[in-house]
Structures are given as C-alpha cells and as structure tokens.
Amino acid sequence: MQHKTQKEELAVPARMIPVPGHISPEAQAFLSNMGAMPRSAEPPPSDKQAWRKHLAEANGFITALIGEMAQNHPGEIVPHALSAATLYEITPHSFATRNAQRAIFYIHGGGYTTGGGLAAAHAALGLADLTQTRVFSVDYRMPPDHPFPAGLNDTLEAYRMVLERYKPANIAVYGPSAGGGLAASFCLKARDAGLPLPAACVLATPECDLTESGDSFETNGIVDVVLKQRLSNSILLYADGHDLKDPYLSALFGDFSKGFPPTILTSGTRDLFLSNTVRMHRALRRAGIEAELHVFEAMPHGGFFGKAPEDQELLAEHVRFIDTHLGRG
Amino acid sequence: MQHKTQKEELAVPARMIPVPGHISPEAQAFLSNMGAMPRSAEPPPSDKQAWRKHLAEANGFITALIGEMAQNHPGEIVPHALSAATLYEITPHSFATRNAQRAIFYIHGGGYTTGGGLAAAHAALGLADLTQTRVFSVDYRMPPDHPFPAGLNDTLEAYRMVLERYKPANIAVYGPSAGGGLAASFCLKARDAGLPLPAACVLATPECDLTESGDSFETNGIVDVVLKQRLSNSILLYADGHDLKDPYLSALFGDFSKGFPPTILTSGTRDLFLSNTVRMHRALRRAGIEAELHVFEAMPHGGFFGKAPEDQELLAEHVRFIDTHLGRG
Fold first, then answer.
1. CB contact, 8 Å: A213 with chain B?
2. Which of A48, B34, B160, B273 is deepest in the core (most CB within 10 A)?
3. What is the pLDDT of residue A243?
4. What is the pLDDT of residues A259-302, one digit of tens each?
C-alpha cells in the first residue's frame, strides 16, 4: 500500500436506501414517489434542433410545476424591457411598506436551458410573498440560440436597472441551482465591472462548478431523486466552447478576496450539488467573506418542490438572512 | 404510484467512487489508502470478555494514532483525581497569558469504548496548542465495566471542578465523535442540574443519535473510509438497556428551547455522521440557539487524521468560534 502510484477507487456495492422515517411525511412521500420517476436523456450539445424539441417538453413540465407552487403567492407582475431580455418586477400582495426601499434581484434556475418566460416571474412569487418585498426577476437569454455569455450579460443589464431605483445596501441577489451559479458569477462580473455589490447573496444549491468535479456528483448520483445525474450536455450547450473553469461560468474558481457579498448557502445531504455548495462555502470562508451554510437531512437538489415543512424551514433561513443584511433607509 | 401504501426504497447500483482530484494531495492519499483498510467486527454487547479483548487491540491502535498526532504539540499534563475518574489539565507550551482566565473542557471520542487513559489528554494537546489555552480533558469511565450513565456523570463532576476555577462565560466545551454526543448530552444534563452553561460548544461530527437513524448511515455507509459502518454494538454496550432516545444518550432528541450554548458543528460530505451533524444543527436553529455548520468536501468521519490542510482549516474554524465566544475577564 505504501508503494501505490495510482489512486484507489472505492468500491461501493449495490444497495437499497430506505426513505428515512424521521423526515416530514410530505418529504417521505416525495422521496418515495420521485425515486421511481425516469429522467429523459439530454440531446448532444451539437444537435440544436433536438435541443429545441427537448426543451419544449422540459419547459412544459417546469412551467406547470412552478405555476402550481406560485398559486398560493399572489402578486402583481410588471415586465420591463431590457435590450434583449425582460426584467419582471414582482410586487406581492403581502408587500410591506417598511420594505419599500428594498429589492431582491432574482436569477432563476433550470439548468441554463429552462425556466424562462413568465415562469421566471412565477418562480419568484413565493420569495416575494415571504419577504413581503419587491423582487426583480430577470428572464435572461438561454441556449441553444443564446449561449454564454448572453445570459450573464443580461443579468448585468438587469441589475443596472435595479440599481437605478435601489441602493446596493438594500439589494439582495438570489439564485437557485443554475441560477445560483449565475448569481455567483454575476457577483464576480459586477464587481469586475466596478458596480457596487448587493448587500446579501443567497445561493441555493448552486451549480457554481461547470466542470462538475465535486465528490457528490459521484456519491449522490442516483441517490438524488430530483437531479439524478450531471448536467453535462446542458453545460456544454450553455458554455459554447468557453473554458469551463472561467469564473464567469464557474464561480467556484473565482478570486473572492477582491470582494463578494455576505452569502448564505443551502443544500441537502442527498443533493447532487452538495459538494458545489460546501466547496463554495469554504472558498468564501477562506477568502474572509461572511458565509453561512445550511444542509437539510435527506433533501435532494432543490428540496421537496415546496411540498414539505423542510422547504419552508429552508426558505425561512433565506428570508432571515436577507432581512438581517439589507438596510431599509 | 398514487396508491402506494409502502415506502419506496431507492435502488442504487454498485459503483466505483474515485478519489477527487481537487482535494489536497494529503487528503487524496488518505482516502486512497484508508479505502483498502479492513475493519474488525465488534463483539456482541453481551460478551464482555470478548469486548475487553477487542478494546485492548482497538485502544492500541487509537493510542498510537493519537500519540503520533500529539507529537507536534508539546504541553504539560497534570492529572486531577475525580471520585471515580481523572481530569487532565493540559497547559500547552504555546500558552498565552491573555487566555489565563479561559478554559476548554474536552470530552474525548472513541465510540464510547476507547480513547481513555492518557490518550484522553494527548487527544487534547493539539487543541490546547492551537488555542494557546488551558484544556481540561476528562478521562470518563467506559464500558464494558462502566456503562451509561457513569461516563456522563463523570463529565458533570469534572465540569464542576473546572467551574471552581473559571467563569462559565470563559469556558468552551469541545467534543469529537462519541465525545460530541457526550458533550451535547452533558450540556443538557448540566442545564437540567442548574449548572451555568459553557459559553460555547464545539460538536465535531457528533454521535448525538444513538438510534443511528440518520440518512447518512445509509448513504455514506462504506463511502466513509474511516467509519465504515454503524457503532451498533458499542452503543448497546454503552447504553446498557436504557432507552436510546433518552436525550442524555441521544442529545438530538433533547429540548433545546430551555437553553443550550452557542454551537459550531462540523462534518464532511463522506461522513457517516453527516446526518447527525446537520440534524443537530437544524434542531438547535429551530430552538433559536446560535449554531453554525461547516461541511468539508469528501471528508470522512473525523477528517484525515490531522494529515491534511483540510484538517487544519476545520480546526481553525473551531478555534475562531471559541475565540469569538469566550470572554477573557
């Protein structure tokens, strides 16, 4: 064993993983039912026509899911035109005037390929309702027609529009999944462009490493019933030949010592992006950035689709973090 | 799928898990070499004679390992007699007089069965050195001859001795693994006994749930190359027929709303006790207790035996937490 030159792979035998009996009944039901769901394979990144067909189907599912989750969170949605994208201004019916000087800048998830259109606004309704705050959600351009850096550029343009109306000390940026990867890269790019940074950043199980090198891509593959495997093809479609280690694509490889907002990061023990999340947390800590981590028991990527008390507990941590970091004046 | 009454187990096929290339070379070497190490089976809890033989061997390995880790951390060790146990007072050569009014109360790990004797002092030398603070390590009684609640009672008696010399606002309690389970139960028992609580608590990958119900006991079994399987038999030996859900055995099931110290919890993505750690973090947060979580990439239970920079980074978080929570006056 002393003379090995090759790294030992770890052989893990086949196993049956039971649904834990101590998580909420809703979370148990979710894990039981989602485990049986098949996942449709993604087309190769070169086949744009196949991608259009694939995304039409995927968007149907995601739009319906987001619409269902938004039902309990009424609000007013006003679109603002950007040069090539849309910024949705969302005012929840629960809007509190004490938060009138605050804004949340929302960057939606969806694997860099789905979740656009009005779904980008609907996805932010719950957050607007819970925070009783106005949320601005950017419907950024996406592949196959608009790969990197189009979408990231749209987030910068959208943020400038928010900055015209709100002080940076009163703005939080919020990104789940691919939106978390974009939110982190957005912070780096905004900083590099000399823009004032938001006062808080929420990275919910972020795809901040497009090389997908994290250990949980191995250990939690299949174990995560929501995201059963890597995003590989979507990533190649989005990155469009750019270096995947470019911090504007993979914020994990950025230099945070030059500035980054205080950040809350959340994940689950079954999350395919658990390693993304904890590695980003460590990278921020090493750079001296205020960063806190929350990991939920047996939670897959993105939680239990809002159906479980655990989802509410996670959101409550986001809301509390935003509330303690944003000014009101 | 709508009509299922039984919970679906998740079938995860056999797999080869590579050693991640992005963790430190030391951590990579550790995972490569430890993966091949066999683990000797524990005797049944009823066979005390077999346990004595098993523990003699296990203690040899652990004492040697702890001795090796302590080599770079010189200090003076003074034993104080308790009624049936020993409290070691450790003054590091790096002792800083600005910390003269501070103390760390250390409760060693070792599966409730090993790590006692002088190893209990040696295990705390590194912490004493890094914090430049006096550490008091309790060599509590253990099975097979002294099962629960003997060891826990010893921690209370030891703490009272520390309290005679230090203000609670200047004391931190620190427990790794089984010592983390004991430390958490100690806090509950000290509180229930009307003793003032320490000002900070460090729970390093704690065994705070002796029912071992956490999801990571399934998902990280075998994946964790240090702790490859549950402690089952040791736990039954230690619990000696008591209800495993008693918070003095399994702090996770305690009521923290009645008081608990500010706590830092640490674990790794490959840790068998990852679920213990994150569930305890959530339980404290839900009770409104200040609690922060750190999870390290691909780290197994207890880290990389002090051989990797990741171990130092983890300890630095403990040291920083203690330093910011303890008074000096």
1. yes
2. B273
3. 98
4. 999 999 999 999 999 999 999 999 999 999 999 999 999 999 99
What is chain B's Cα-based Rg?
19
Instruction: Say if the Cβ atoms of A269 and B274 lie within 8 Å.
Output: yes
CA of A278, closest CA in chain B: separation in Å? 6
Instruction: Reply yes or no on whether the pLDDT at A38 is more than 70.
Output: no
Q: How confident is the model at residue B5 (pLDDT cuts 50, 70, 90)?
A: very low
**Among chain A residues, CA nearest to B218:** A17
Instruction: Name the CA dihedral angle for B42, B58, B177, A295, rounded to a multiple of 10 degrees.
Output: -60
pLDDT band at A1 (very low <50, low <70, confident <90, very high): very low
The DSSP-derived string for B191-213 is HHTTPPPPSEEEEES----TT--
Scanning B232-291 for CB atoms below 8 A from A yields 269-270, 274-275, 278-279, 281-282, 285-286
Residue B3 has pLDDT above 60, yes or no: no
Tokens 């991608």, residue? A51
> pLDDT, tens digit, for every residue of B98-118?
999 999 999 999 999 999 999
Question: Are A225 and B298 an interchain contact pair (Cβ–Cβ within 8 Å)?
Answer: no
Nearest alpha carbon to residue B265 among B327, B181, B198: B181
| Structure-token pair, residue B55 | 């523990």
Give me the residues paired with residue B295 across strands: B267
Tell whether A1 is within 8 A of chain B (Cβ): yes
Q: Please state which architecture CATH assigns to domain B65-325.
A: 3-Layer(aba) Sandwich (3.40)
- Is pTM, for the whole model, over 0.80? yes
What does residue B288 show for φ and ψ, rounded to 5 degrees?
Answer: 80, 15
Q: Is the pLDDT of residue A61 over 90?
A: no
A213 and B17: CB-CB below 8 Å? no
CATH of A71-325 among 3.40.50.1820, 3.90.25.10, 1.20.1540.10, 3.20.20.60: 3.40.50.1820
Within its chain, how far is the Cα of A121 from the centroid?
Answer: 15
Q: Which of residues 133-192 of B touch A (CB under 8 A)?
A: none
* B304 chain-A contacts, CB cut-off 8 A: none
Domain extents for chain A? 71-325
- Nearest by CB to residue A36, choosing from B1, B33, B36, is B1
* Cβ–Cβ contact A3 with B under 8 A: no
